[in-house]
Amino acid sequence: MTEDWRSYVQRIEELAARSGLSFNPVDFEAVPDSFMMEVAIYGLPVRMPHWSFGVRYIYQLIQRRMGHSRLFEVVFPGNPGHAYLAESNGLAENILVTAHVLGHADFSRNNLLFRRCQQQVSERIVEHAASHARQIQHNIEAHGAQRVEAVLDAALALEQHIDVDQDLRRERYAEYLADPRTLVDDTFRKRFAALEPAAPSASLERKRAPVPPHAERDLLWFVANYAPEMESWERDIFLAVREESFYFYPVFATQIMNEGWASYWHARLLREADFVPQQSYLDAIKCHSDVVRPIAAEQQVSLSVNPYHLGFAMWEKIVAKDGLDAARRIMEQDDDFAFVRNHLTRELADELGLFRYSARSDGQIKVLEQDLTALHEALLAPRYNFGAPVVSAAHVRNDGTLELTHDSSVDGRGLDLERSRKVLDYMQKVWRRPIVLTTVNQAGSALELTAP
């Protein structure tokens, strides 16, 4: 069965290229289901070891045994890309998955966000992450598992707190405040300033810039660069976690687009693959993603949301209305925020039955509204800021105390206080000075969390 599947890979690749897909080479490998789950949980085939991944593994194992999930493939963009297919897949499933993977490969090679992040991190992320894992193992041997785990606790607790608007390799802040005279941009004023007599030497004393000079959202970078007593190997761990977070961000920020694009292309390629046996074709079509309606809880969006189904439906509408070239331009330039806001129309939302609703404990469901803008924002709300609350480093006091602030106005939600206290405890072990986090309680009043 495996040989039969592999015999179709080259022909599907050739069909995809003729159809206009442009992708880096992809290494396909069939692996045991248990390995597939490990890859999905760790996010990479080889990654730095940590107990939190084991917790995620147990959760996914339970979900699978309850029939709530099944993994057909896991894809890692790069050059080459890597695709792991479950050995339990049948021939038809693997034919469909191969076409699906090539859709992902086309997306990751040509989408601007993917390209920017891959260029900054690495196009060979599997090997890059394996190098990080080896370095972690060396650290364990040199410094002990307990010390390394404490650093990983803090770094992985902050893995969503990066700033992708900044470059991966940033310069440290300027040590001193700029001379105001250097900020003059008017030609006349510059010439006039040049005529000023030399000031007394005492006035030339430069003032140190505050740290940070502005609210800093990239907490992994900030701690790695400004923690008072961090050792170099600890800083390296923080920066390694930050690199991997930069790699994962496009996957998170384009999930609806990316899964929809891959689903659109696997359906299209299957229709055009006249070399696939009729029965295998029919079996593959049956594997095509169905709508899944999860159990309603609190305020949700109806169909809440299967990215394969929503993205597929949106791409089909775009191609039918504006053509494939227009769809490719959108694919190259957008992320999910632009994609949903610009292309999820009222007509399509009605067709898919999308609306905001609330559910009571007695099972009663109430439609809240069908306003399109509100629907867009409800769909996108979990995707802001990598899905994490907006917490910034605001100030470092003279005694080294780190002040953090939570901007609740951005996401309209409070913090999970129990989780926040744990994260602060993890951070304090590497910052090695007190940490104070300012947030708000349920009543909207100021609240401070501290560690220790």
What does this structure look like?
The protein is about 50% helix and about 10% strand. By secondary structure, it is α+β, with helices and mostly antiparallel strands. Among the domains are: about 125-170 and about 210-250 and about 390-450, no CATH class; about 290-385, no CATH class. The strands form three sheets. It has a four-stranded mixed beta sheet. Strands 1-3-2 form a three-stranded mixed beta sheet. α6 (about 125-145) runs antiparallel to α10, α7 crosses α19 and α9 packs antiparallel against α10. The chain starts with a helix and ends with a strand.
Structural topology:
Blueprint: H1 2-18, E1 26-31, H2 33-42, H3 51-65, E2 73-76, E3 81-86, H4 91-110, H5 112-120, H6 125-143, H7 145-157, H8 187-194, H9 219-226, H10 232-253, H11 255-272, H12 278-286, E4 298-301, H13 307-322, H14 324-333, H15 336-343, H16 346-352, E5 356-359, E6 365-369, H17 372-380, E7 391-396, E8 402-406, H18 408-411, H19 417-431, E9 435-440, E10 446-451
Parallel strand pairs: 1-3, 8-9
Antiparallel strand pairs: 2-3, 4-5, 5-6, 7-8, 9-10
Helix pairs in contact: 1-4, 2-3, 4-11, 4-12, 5-10, 6-7, 6-10, 7-10, 7-19, 9-10, 11-13, 13-14, 15-17
Features:
single chain; 452 residues; three-stranded mixed sheet; 10 strands
What is the structure about, briefly put?
The protein contains 19 helices and 10 strands.
Distance between the termini: 58 Å
Number of helices: 19
Quaternary structure of the protein: single chain
As a percent range, the share of helical residues equals 40-55%
> What is Rg?
25 Å
Number of strands: 10
In the sheet with the most strands, the strands line up as 7-8-9-10
- The fraction of residues assigned to DSSP E strands is 5-15%
Largest sheet: 4 strands, mixed
Written as H for each helix and E for each strand, in order along the chain, the element string is HEHHEEHHHHHHHHHEHHHHEEHEEHHEE
**Principal-axis shape:** globular
**Residue-averaged pLDDT, rounded?**
83
Low-confidence stretches: 53-68, 199-203, 289-303, 359-367
The secondary-structure class comes to alpha+beta
